[in-house]
Specification:
Elements: H1 11-15, H2 20-25, H3 39-55, H4 57-65, E1 70-71, H5 74-80, H6 90-113, H7 116-137, E2 140-141, E3 156-157, H8 159-177, H9 196-213, H10 217-224, E4 235-237, H11 249-257, E5 262-263, H12 268-273, E6 286-287, H13 289-295, E7 296-298, E8 309-311, E9 332-335, H14 337-351, H15 354-369, H16 376-379, E10 385-386, H17 407-422, H18 428-435, H19 461-466
Antiparallel strand pairs: 1-5, 2-3, 4-9, 6-10, 7-8
Helix pairs in contact: 3-6, 3-7, 6-7, 7-8, 7-9, 8-9, 9-10, 9-14, 10-14, 14-15, 14-17, 15-17, 17-18
Length: about 475
């Protein structure tokens, strides 16, 4: 923690760090060689670090443990079987705290200039990274991380308190953004070009996410109502086709730097989406062909259980006729319209009524019926069908009630499963699985090894070595975080 406190880095130093070699293989920047930079460049750097954190090893591990893909070669085969040590998490921890520390630098500089708009943006970015960090690690340093002089060994704040402080931070960000004070960062903001309306909606969506993760479903619903208003307003990182430059980092990992290390063999998500699977979730109103092929490349003929199935990195820019979920120039999702709609559906099912929840689910299905987030190269080539459900579909014997449970529970089960398959490519699926593990309607991903799924990331070895306040004994990956106990 002490290495990341006081300095700002030139944004162009960050750009080369976006590829998965730096995220996964530890070739990160040297934090011991800092320099200063204008706040606008630092803002760009914060956003790039935020992408690096969410789309690198953190996602690869979370996606592996959530049943989206599997490790089959070299050290990833061990990670897949839950054999992992604290050293692996050093760059992930570093990226998370670089977002927080550099965001604080932006806030401090903009406070002098009175630019509340950019302060608000920086607060949203900090909340995004720290929210994910506390979700996957549990207790983390938070309140003392910006004052290394007085707190050289920052305390680990309880997870529940971190979530509460993030809600306050996001409230502040909304007030800052809506104050009308401060010039736009323009193109230095690579997500929205300084658009206040879009940033406010993202802040509300993050508030709804953190209320969901702490099971405050009523507030999650009310915040989601004010969340991202359309797919075009989702917060995603734009990528390109420049080798070792701006390519999607998951593409670089799968197709270039670590080819063959990750497979989709045995993917639980693929089994739900594959029309040939015994657990296929499709029905007379739902055709998952396009989404299945968008998410996975079937290189053989034996389907989801085969080692020939891989996460889909096909790219038009690489000569394919298709652009898969991890194509070279595929945008990486951080805070999305899909999340907002599905939060309304789940929180509505838990706190409103069957009719309200069904209406929200059908709004999402109508969106998906037009193709939704699936790349058009797949919706043109494969059937797409997500017709609206009716109450009778969830009654005993209905097409979406295979267990004979009450219609309300059958609807909740369907919504949770929809969230799971919609969050392929995001850490949210891992968070949802753990949040709903004790509920019969939760998605039940079978462990690859043993009888328990991983519940958290290990604290980075660098933090264990340098911070005397690191929890003792150090929790292992199977220990529940506080919010999931």
């Amino acid at each position: 923690m002490k290495r990341f406190i006081k300095y700002s880095f030139f944004a162009w130093l960050f750009i080369g760090q976006i590829g998965c070699e730096s995220i996964v293989d530890g070739l990160n920047e040297n934090p011991n060689s800092p320099t200063d930079a204008p706040a606008m460049l630092t803002l760009t750097g914060v956003q790039l670090y935020n992408t690096s954190f969410h789309s690198g090893l953190a996602y690869l591990l979370a996606g592996m443990w959530a049943g989206y893909h599997s490790g089959v070669n070299r050290q990833y085969a061990e990670y897949n079987n839950y054999g992992i040590n604290a050293d692996i998490f050093n760059p992930v921890w570093s990226d998370a705290y670089q977002v927080s520390m550099q965001a604080q630098i932006v806030m401090d500089k903009m406070e002098v200039e009175g630019n509340r708009r950019i302060i608000g943006i920086a607060k949203v970015l900090k909340a995004n990274a720290m929210g994910t960090a506390t979700a996957v690690w549990g207790d983390i340093p938070y309140t003392e991380i910006s004052d290394s002089d007085n707190f050289p060994n920052p305390k680990f704040d309880p997870q529940v308190e971190v979530y509460a402080k993030l809600q306050t931070l996001l409230d502040e960000s909304i007030a800052d953004l809506e104050s009308g004070s401060g010039a736009s960062p323009g193109t230095s903001d690579i997500y929205f070009g300084g658009n206040v309306v879009q940033w406010v909606a993202v802040a509300h969506t993050l508030k709804s996410r953190y209320y969901m993760e702490t099971r405050n479903y009523e507030l999650a619903y009310s915040e989601a109502e004010k969340g991202v208003s359309s797919a075009a307003n989702s917060m995603k990182t734009t990528h390109g086709v420049v080798l070792s430059g701006n390519q999607n980092p998951v593409y670089r990992f799968l197709a270039i730097s670590r080819t063959g290390d990750i497979s989709a063999k045995g993917s639980y998500a693929a089994a739900l989406l594959d029309p040939k699977s015994a657990t296929y979730r499709g029905n007379a109103k739902t055709d998952e062909n396009a989404r299945y092929n968008f998410n996975f490349i079937n290189l053989g003929s034996s389907g989801y259980a085969s080692g020939q199935l891989e996460p889909n990195y096909l790219s038009v820019a690489g000569g394919s006729t298709f652009n898969g979920i991890y194509a070279q120039d595929a945008k990486f999702p951080l805070v999305t319209y899909e999340e907002k709609l599905l939060t309304l559906a789940e929180a509505g099912a838990r706190t409103k009524s069957f009719a309200v929840a069904l209406a929200h689910l059908n709004t999402y299905r109508a969106y998906m019926n037009t193709g939704g987030y699936i790349n058009a190269t797949y919706t043109r080539a494969y059937p797409v069908k997500y017709l609206p459900y009716e109450e009778a579909d969830f009654a005993t014997g209905g097409m979406v009630n295979k267990t004979g449970e009450a219609k309300e529970l059958a609807l909740l089960r369907e919504i949770l499963q929809e969230r799971y398959v919609s969050f392929v490519g995001q850490i949210l699926g891992f968070n949802d699985i753990r949040r709903t593990a004790k509920e019969a309607q939760g998605v039940k991903v079978p462990p690859v090894f043993g009888s328990v799924l991983p519940q958290r990331f290990l604290y980075a070895q660098t933090e264990v070595n340098s911070n005397t306040n690191t929890p003792k004994p150090i929790p292992n990956i199977f220990q529940l975080t506080e919010i999931n106990k």
